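Following up on my earlier thread - several people asked me to post the actual chain instead of describing it. Fair enough. Here it is, all 78 residues.
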Amino acid sequence: MKAGFIKTAFAAIALTSAAVGTANAAGCMKGAVVGGVAGHYAGHHAVVGAMGGCLVGRHMAKKQAEERAGQRQQARVE
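Reply from S.P.:
Thanks for posting it. Predicted structure:
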């Protein structure tokens, strides 16, 4: 059972990486792993969880980058 889960997780990560590309992958890998594990334990939906985790991870990374950019801009103004 663990081997099947690991194979599914790696396949999901590979698919999401190929679909997302390297330019927009910030946060995707960590989110995919966390989402895959959560999906597995929430009813054997690791692939769906990995995809959702990737999307959430990308969103959070983008939000964090925008916050950092705003802080840098404020530091320049002051």
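The chain has three helices and no strands. That should answer part of your original question.
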